[in-house]
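[Automated response] Your request has been received and processed.

Submitted sequence:
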Amino acid sequence: MSDTTLPSAELQTLKSQFFKSLAHPIRIRILEILVNGEVKVQDLQKALDLDQPIVSQQLARLRATGIVVSRKEGTTTFYALSDPMLAELLSVAKTILNRRLVGIHSLLSELRTETGARHRRRVTSRR
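Generated structure:
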């Protein structure tokens, strides 16, 4: 593969920063809520069952990387996804993880079957 087909180091760094900003369970939960539309900070706090400073910290990180946008209406701040394709990104990630978990579930079922068969053979041989 030639170097001209690879993204620049700057672009790779930008992508890495983007994914790092998603790399926290609370941030993912926030985005999953925002997929349904704009939400007041207070409603996010209630939905997440977290204190205001924690929610604000995570929202600040998402806002700093441009993943969410905010708007004020009086003293109330609303948050929304900056790009509707973020909902698609979350959906694709969910699909990938579901496929992986189905594979793991299959292996666990196979392990249970194998363990059960071994146990039955041991019990039968003791008789």
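Summary generated for your ticket: The beta strands are 39-40, 68-73, 76-81. The first strand starts at residue 39 and ends at 40.
If you did not submit this request, please reply to this message.
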